[in-house]
Specification:
about 220 residues, alpha+beta, 6-stranded mixed sheet, about 35% helix, about 20% strand, globular
Length: about 220
Amino acid sequence: MNLEVKNDLLSIIDKVSIEYGPHSNAVLITKLHLIRSLISHYENKELINDLINEVSLHYARTLPESLRDRLPSVDGFYISEFDFEESNESIKKLIINIDSKNKLNSLSSNKWYIYIIDQYDRFRIMDVPVSTAELIVKRSYINTSHKKTLLIHPLLLEFKTDRVKAAGEIGIIKDKHNKIAGALINNKSGHFKPHKSSLNLVRDYLTKLNVNQDYIYGVNIG
């Protein structure tokens, strides 16, 4: 990426910051869009990392106090108390166990999905894609024939007694040939509140599915 293009990208962020404020949702959404675009074109890792650090700081400034404390792990698992609502059959059909690159490639680019890695090392994703704007500015729901259900990580558990190693949100990024160019992951889960170290588990899992580890970027929440 030449200096002119880099400056153009930074000027976009500056314009949004001036119009909406430096800590606004608009700036966060803009930075996430730019990160995804840079990854899809295999562009400027230094700038990508700078933007990711800014996004992490943005979350640190704006997250509610209840989401800031990371829970300690117990034997490598994260424990959290919450009201468990067992998934109905319609919701269970939306859960994908990502155990191959083909399944990973079936996910939409430029969308986000919630994920967990459970005690059986299953990488479970809810096949309910949301846009970057939806991810940031509003709660998302699953619409089934039964009822409207809030899109939350506990729905990915098979049983209430299941334990979780990692949880958060993932965006698969594809290149112009619709091939996986990389991934953007975070550890944002209000129920499980996993430590930033859990991102390494997700990175390792994706690497085993032949995603280029150099283009798997983690955003620490908290």
